[in-house]
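Form 7-S
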Amino acid sequence: MLDLTNLQLITDGNKTLLNSLLTEFIRTTDDDLKELNNAIKDQQHDSIIRLSHRIKGAAAIVGASELVELTAELEAAGCQSGLNNSLELLKRIMHCYENVSEEINHYN
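Output:
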Protein backbone atom coordinates (compact mmCIF):
# COMPACT_ATOMS: atom_id res chain seq x y z
CA MET A 1 0.00 0.00 0.00
CA LEU A 2 2.92 2.34 0.72
CA ASP A 3 5.83 2.74 -1.71
CA LEU A 4 8.58 4.84 -0.15
CA THR A 5 10.82 4.78 -3.25
CA ASN A 6 10.09 8.39 -4.21
CA LEU A 7 10.49 9.63 -0.66
CA GLN A 8 13.78 7.77 -0.30
CA LEU A 9 15.02 9.51 -3.45
CA ILE A 10 13.88 12.91 -2.19
CA THR A 11 15.63 12.38 1.15
CA ASP A 12 18.72 10.82 -0.47
CA GLY A 13 18.30 7.84 1.84
CA ASN A 14 18.46 9.95 5.02
CA LYS A 15 16.31 7.86 7.38
CA THR A 16 15.98 10.67 9.95
CA LEU A 17 14.66 13.07 7.32
CA LEU A 18 12.41 10.39 5.84
CA ASN A 19 10.91 9.64 9.27
CA SER A 20 10.43 13.36 9.89
CA LEU A 21 8.54 13.75 6.61
CA LEU A 22 6.37 10.73 7.36
CA THR A 23 5.55 12.16 10.80
CA GLU A 24 4.66 15.51 9.21
CA PHE A 25 2.47 13.70 6.65
CA ILE A 26 0.52 12.05 9.48
CA ARG A 27 0.13 15.30 11.42
CA THR A 28 -1.02 17.42 8.49
CA THR A 29 -3.23 14.73 6.95
CA ASP A 30 -4.98 14.15 10.28
CA ASP A 31 -5.84 17.86 10.37
CA ASP A 32 -6.80 17.98 6.69
CA LEU A 33 -9.14 15.00 7.03
CA LYS A 34 -10.95 16.58 9.96
CA GLU A 35 -11.35 19.76 7.95
CA LEU A 36 -12.45 17.75 4.89
CA ASN A 37 -15.09 15.97 6.95
CA ASN A 38 -16.53 19.33 8.02
CA ALA A 39 -16.38 20.69 4.48
CA ILE A 40 -18.34 17.69 3.18
CA LYS A 41 -20.95 18.03 5.91
CA ASP A 42 -21.34 21.72 5.04
CA GLN A 43 -21.12 21.05 1.26
CA GLN A 44 -18.30 23.59 0.86
CA HIS A 45 -17.22 22.69 -2.66
CA ASP A 46 -14.15 24.94 -2.78
CA SER A 47 -12.83 23.57 0.50
CA ILE A 48 -13.51 19.99 -0.58
CA ILE A 49 -11.55 20.52 -3.78
CA ARG A 50 -8.67 22.31 -2.00
CA LEU A 51 -8.34 19.75 0.79
CA SER A 52 -8.70 16.75 -1.53
CA HIS A 53 -5.97 18.19 -3.73
CA ARG A 54 -3.66 18.84 -0.76
CA ILE A 55 -4.13 15.34 0.66
CA LYS A 56 -3.63 13.85 -2.80
CA GLY A 57 -0.31 15.67 -3.21
CA ALA A 58 0.96 14.66 0.21
CA ALA A 59 -0.09 11.05 -0.40
CA ALA A 60 1.76 11.04 -3.71
CA ILE A 61 4.97 12.18 -2.02
CA VAL A 62 4.86 9.36 0.54
CA GLY A 63 3.82 6.78 -2.05
CA ALA A 64 0.28 6.07 -0.86
CA SER A 65 -1.14 5.36 -4.32
CA GLU A 66 -4.61 4.17 -3.24
CA LEU A 67 -5.06 7.31 -1.14
CA VAL A 68 -4.00 9.37 -4.17
CA GLU A 69 -6.66 7.67 -6.31
CA LEU A 70 -9.45 8.14 -3.78
CA THR A 71 -8.70 11.79 -3.10
CA ALA A 72 -8.38 12.44 -6.83
CA GLU A 73 -11.87 10.97 -7.24
CA LEU A 74 -13.26 13.28 -4.55
CA GLU A 75 -11.44 16.28 -6.01
CA ALA A 76 -12.88 15.55 -9.46
CA ALA A 77 -16.37 15.13 -8.02
CA GLY A 78 -16.03 18.48 -6.28
CA CYS A 79 -14.93 20.16 -9.51
CA GLN A 80 -17.99 18.74 -11.26
CA SER A 81 -20.33 19.53 -8.33
CA GLY A 82 -21.07 15.80 -8.18
CA LEU A 83 -20.71 15.29 -4.46
CA ASN A 84 -23.67 12.96 -4.02
CA ASN A 85 -21.47 10.09 -2.86
CA SER A 86 -18.96 12.26 -1.00
CA LEU A 87 -19.68 10.80 2.45
CA GLU A 88 -19.17 7.26 1.18
CA LEU A 89 -15.99 8.32 -0.57
CA LEU A 90 -14.78 10.02 2.61
CA LYS A 91 -15.31 6.75 4.51
CA ARG A 92 -13.15 4.95 1.95
CA ILE A 93 -10.51 7.68 2.20
CA MET A 94 -10.49 7.47 5.99
CA HIS A 95 -10.18 3.67 5.93
CA CYS A 96 -7.33 3.86 3.44
CA TYR A 97 -5.60 6.55 5.50
CA GLU A 98 -5.87 4.42 8.64
CA ASN A 99 -4.07 1.61 6.80
CA VAL A 100 -1.39 4.00 5.54
CA SER A 101 -0.93 5.44 9.04
CA GLU A 102 -0.50 1.97 10.51
CA GLU A 103 2.06 1.12 7.86
CA ILE A 104 3.97 4.34 8.56
CA ASN A 105 3.90 3.67 12.31
CA HIS A 106 5.35 0.20 11.73
CA TYR A 107 8.03 1.71 9.49
CA ASN A 108 9.09 4.31 12.06
